[in-house]
Every structure is written in C-alpha cells, then in structure tokens.
Write a structure and sequence with these properties.
The chain is an alpha/beta fold. It contains seven helices and eight strands; from the N terminus they run αβαβαβαβαβαβαββ. It has helices spanning 21-30, 59-72, 91-98, 133-149, 174-187, 209-217, 238-248, and strands at residues 35-41, 77-85, 105-109, 155-156, 190-194, 222-225, 252-257, 260-265. The strands form two sheets. The protein has a six-stranded parallel beta sheet. β7 (252-257) and β8 (260-265) form a beta hairpin. The protein is globular. The chain starts with 20 loop residues before the first helix and ends with a strand.
C-alpha cells in the first residue's frame, strides 16, 4: 500500500513524547513512507504557560533536529512544521514564530477553550464535569473557526478534538463544524484526518465520518496524521484513515513545501 504523507508527529521537546526525529524517520522508511512532516507544539508566549509546549529556547534546536533527520534519511522527504495553538489575542506571536524559520506548513490547533483550560489535558478532565458539554463544544468550534479564518495556517488539526474523552453532547453538532468547514473553504485551509483518536477514550478517528463527508462535499482538501508521540505510532491506522477518506469521495490529498500546496493522488 502506498501511504500519503504523515504530517503530524512530535518529539521529546513537547515533554510528553519519545523518539528523536531521526528515530521516527527510520520507522517511516521501514513502513514504506516517502514523505513525513514534524509538527512539534509551538513555543508559547510564556514558557510557564503549561507543561506540554516546546520552550522558546528549544525552537532553533528543534529545527536542527529535523535537519539531522533529513541528512540521515535523504531517501525520505521530511517537512519542517509546527502545530500552533490558536489564541485570538496571540496572532502577532504566531506571525512572529512563522517568520523565524522556513516552515513547510503550519498546523492550526485549539487545545484551550479558555486561557487556562486545555480541555484535552488528562490532568484537567474533572473540569468537563463542571461544564455543559455542548457549551464546551460550542466554545471549541468557535475558536477553531476563528483559527481557520485567520489564514495563519495551512492545515487544521484534529478537527473534533473535543470528543477525546468521549464527552459527547446530545445536540446535533453539524452546524458547529459546518461553520469551521466554511472558513476552511474561504481560506483554502486543509483538514487533517488524524488517527490518534483511535488511541483515546473516544476510540474514533478525528474527525467523525459525518464531518469528513461534509468536508468532501465542500471540497475541503485533506492531509493525514498519526499524531505520533513515539516511533511505533508513525503511520498508525493509516489504512483505516484512507478508507474513511475514500468512502467520503476523496481522491486526492495535499503535500506542502515552503507553505505552498500541491495536490497528489490518494
């Protein structure tokens, strides 16, 4: 099987992953990949913001680690990227980070529904029980839509991450993610199909098949992501992700170089 590029992978610099870039690259070669991308969590505006983003002083070292992986595995196309958390009041910081290195793409993500609650953090799962689930989903998709509308990113990450702990509202959420997809159409942002959800409480690929179907109908381009936090997770469950995309009608996926998109057959 010919796999699409795995464009979402992490390193120890996020403090909760193992395996240096060249170790993940080795796995990718062994599994038959021809292209991958590293997308470490961006440095935050303050290093003490939380305990799972890259430190500011590690940014240049991260870029060099990816460069080493490129040197060690020249047969593999390795892209340099970041997964960037979107905060409405930090767009200037994101632009500053974007200008520091020759990124191949930036993945926009929302992990915070307030300035202090990273809702997917296992250490804060009890906060879900203090909030109305649908209201949390509304807050998540509102911020995600704003992230996509900002035009700062090539790809939107795990588009229904809010289901991670299997807190699912009873209401129809189609209007929520429909708004995000309309923003993706406006800005030309791709949506990733991320297999990490299969390894979480929700036991489901991000995003839900109904969102993938709607995205296909709206001609939103896609990328694929394992969200690997260890070498053995590179490309994990890609056959299932590819089948999900094909069932929705996708025949192409995206590749990025220097923030320019190219469509390639799926």
């Amino acid at each position: 099987m010919v796999f699409p590029a795995d464009y979402h992978m992490h390193t120890p610099l996020c403090h909760h992953a193992v395996g240096e870039p060249w170790e993940l690259a080795e796995q990718a070669v062994q599994k038959g990949f021809t292209e991958i991308g590293f997308s470490e969590h961006n440095p935050m505006i303050r290093d003490d913001y939380d305990d799972w983003h890259m430190y500011q002083d590690d940014l240049d070292g991260y870029v060099e680690k990816v460069a080493k992986a490129r040197r060690d595995y020249p047969q593999l196309r390795i892209k340099l990227a970041m997964e960037v958390d979107y905060f409405p009041d930090q767009e200037d910081w994101i632009k500053d980070l974007a200008a520091r290195h020759p990124w191949d793409y930036l993945i926009g993500a929302v992990h915070y529904v307030t300035d202090t609650w990273d809702f997917d953090n296992p250490k804060k799962i009890d906060l879900w029980k203090q909030h109305d689930v649908y209201e949390v989903w509304q807050a998540y998709f509102d911020r995600l839509t704003r992230a996509v509308d900002s035009g700062l990113f090539e790809i939107v990450a795990h588009p229904d991450l809010c289901k991670k702990f299997a807190f699912i509202p009873g209401q129809d959420c189609t209007p929520l993610y429909g708004s995000m997809l309309k923003a993706a159409v406006r800005t030309g942002t791709a949506m990733e199909i991320n297999t990490a959800g299969l390894r979480k409480d929700c036991k489901e690929i991000y995003p839900h098949p109904s969102m993938v179907q709607l995205a296909a109908e709206m001609n939103v381009p896609i990328t694929f992501a394992s969200d690997a936090h260890a070498p053995e997770e590179v490309g994990m469950n890609f056959p299932e992700a590819m089948e999900l995309a094909r069932k929705a009608g996708y025949t192409q996926t995206c590749q990025f170089t220097q923030r320019k998109r190219q469509m390639v057959p799926l």
